[in-house]
Amino acid sequence: MLPLSILHINDEEVLLQLVKAIIGAKFNNVTIQSFQDSNEAWQELSRADPYLLITDDIMPGPTGEDLVRWLVQRHVQYPIAVTSGWPPTEQWVRNYTETNPKITFLRCPFTADELCKQLRHHLPVDAESPSNRSHPTSEGTKPAHDMTLPHKDPLAWALIKRYRSVQEAEAEHIDRKSVV
Questions:
Q1: pLDDT level of residue 117 (50, 70, 90 thresholds)
Q2: Global confidence as pTM
């Protein structure tokens, strides 16, 4: 069986590495192409369709919304997960999901569990590593912090542990934007 191709676009290298580490640890038979430059990603998408696309919304150059609009015009059939911490993004994603239910939204910052839950909706069941198919917590409860990723990669572990709450991550993100 050929590996499933996931294309991930995000202008922040650390998030590209984090998502790649999470997916690599949780799913089998998946390849991930990562792009920081949305123009380069567009060129790749004009050549070949991935099994799944994960794109950030707010990026230099063409945004995630620009990309989704272009893909909708091309009538793509693969799932698209849009990530963003910016509330207006969630609103425009909802507008597109009315015409294409394969377009979903994942609010940043997200945990490894939240990312995997989103991916489970789009990837075949056998793509997930057998050890990760049953989750120790019930659907309605959330662990104090995410310990489900086999932390072979110290960078991924440091990134996952870095934020204790969504509010803490948003506050840091806002502080960084005001300095720039």
A1: very high
A2: 0.71
